[in-house]
Amino acid sequence: MSGANPGAIVTVPAIAVVDEVRDEIEDVRTFYFSFEDPAVGRDFRVKSGQFIMCTVFGAGEFAVSLPFSPENDRPHISVRRVGKVTRALHELRAGDKIGVRGPFGNGFPFESIKGKNVIYVAGGIGLIPLRSSIVHVLQHRPDFGRIILIYGSKSSRELMYRDMIEQWKATEGFETYFTIDRPEPGWTGPVGFVHTMVRPADVPVENTVAFVCGPPLMFNSVIKELLAAGIKDEAIMSTLERHMKCGIGKCQHCAIGRTLVCTDGPVYTYKQIKTLGEQI
Amino acid sequence: MYIMPKSQARALAAALAEEYDLYGPVLREASGEPTFDRVEDPAAIRLEAAIPYNPPKSVVFPQAERVLSYRYDREAKKAVFVRDDLVRPKALVGLRACDLSGLLCLDRFYLGQDYVDEFYRDHRKRMFIVANTCVRPFPQCFCVCTDSGPAPREGFDVALTAAGDDYLVEAGSEKGQALTRRLGLKDAGPGAAARRAAIVDASIASFDGAAMENKAWISRVMNRITTGFISNDVWEYIGDQCFECGACSFVCPTCSCFNVEDIDSREGRTDRVRSWDSCSYEGYTRMAGEHNPRRPVEDRRNKRFFCKLSYSQSKKYLRPGCVGCGRCNRVCPGDIGIANVVTYIRREITKAGAK
Fold first, then answer.
1. What's the predicted TM-score (pTM) here?
2. Is the CB of B65 inside 8 Å of chain A's CB atoms?
3. For the segment A150-183, what is each residue's pLDDT rounded down to a tens digit?
4. Which residue is closest to B282 within chain A, CA to CA?
5. What domains sit in chain A, N to C, each tagged with a CATH number?
6. Cβ separation of A245 and B258 shorter than 8 Å?
7. Cα separation, A137 vs A111, whole angstroms
8. Residue B332, SS3?
9. Which residues of B touch A248 (CB under 8 A)?
10. Which are the contacts of A123, defined by CB distance < 8 A and separation ≥ 6?
11. Which of A37, A61, A175, A251 is geometrically suited to a Cys-Cys bond with A246, CB 3.0 to 4.6 A?
């Protein structure tokens, strides 16, 4: 699945402008950006599921997944404030600059899954990397079978992309399940961990692919449910995260088993994940 | 094949110094220890010195190096990146076969995978390599086990083989050919290739028993490491002896992992610095937020040996990742250099076979 991405910005970051900063949930913000040089922006073509290396000037560079669709979607990243560089990113306001290298990585399959049922299962900020594929697949709705999203978080305050969720709920032909871990006043939807929604969703098994992303505990329970439903391990995909320094397969920090997340991933099938021999 | 008196080696280095920054084996003044370093005076190069303490990789992959810098004026919202010019023509004189093999591994890794590492490429282009056959092995050596010596086979511009008071000189490129002409070297005559072969054979024959005995075992151990048929006990035994000092990675001719940091310097400039890193360090895989997917020390040790001795990694290098220079064995305070690890795994295989 690996191979260099043609047109990727490899060595010297391209400078981009932060056009807008939006608060998502606690400690998570979305940064909309556009390239300073419009020609760079035109050549910057992404596949859903890819990532970039983002420079925060004076702080450093970090790897971050791309949540926007390759078609007709505003370029942005959604980032949790968790370490030195992401803390510095959160200080940025509209008009500030960032540096961008990429896009890197294999990305989610798109052409090869046309005609199939697509199941998305996300927990917490695991929705961020799946968003690009969800939006892209919905943009091509007639090309796919059933499209299902199961998304949950600890509480309603911790659901990502609230506006998008409202839009998705109203989208015809898109089966959505939103859940929170514990009941809370005003919440009328289902309550319970994400994996408990797999059975109620009556997921299709034949001709189906499932994309799963979320914290390890949630991931493992969801995988169990999907396998129990009869979905094959090669039809289940996830995107992995690792400490990364280069994005182009040289620094080796993201090595898992015999693969590198940056060039062989970040998207892996569960069948591959099982053979990596390391924790995910 | 050409021939030149040993006394002419200085003229060879001096000729290269006119066009290139010169690097080669020199002796530390205080300790007499051979190191591979930048050389100002061509006469300082010691072609007959033992394997240098450090491999030549720092020439193409410095221990710490500014690769980019940028200025960011937040008030004016203006950012400018500057790419450093790393292109200096370099001549590496007196490279041993193991180190040349190591350099070729780095080439294949940095230049030959999905992406080209442009910083490495800049260092590597416009380089002249004078390789040097080991006419006798040094105590730490096991290049015969890893198919990387004692004579250089490819990747050099000129290769020297000491023969009495002379060097037999082989040109490996146009550039090398031009140098032999410039130095006015004489043709070595019809028997030269056979003479060189005999010298190399004699060198191979004088490797000690341990190296020769391990020869067959390296491929067996590689098979085991690749297929994962090594018990956790063995990895734990090996991991328990690791001090996480990283020395093995730093002296390894093929270890190429790096860290990258943006460091504020004066005058509003920030430098992007890349520096050697080691998979034996606890922080190597630690992510922001303290999550570390790699388990304790045996997991990390296992990673290095996988990198040096597995088929899947060898595919990237087109040869084993270990070149048999023996440096890790020499520097490791925990006795888990590659040669010892091969011995530990070999012991396990033999034991299991005896059951």
1. 0.93
2. no
3. 999 999 999 999 999 999 999 999 999 999 999 9
4. A253
5. 9-104 (2.40.30.10), 111-239 (3.40.50.80)
6. yes
7. 10
8. coil
9. 114-115, 117
10. A151, A152, A153, A194, A213, A214, A215, A218, A219, A222
11. A251
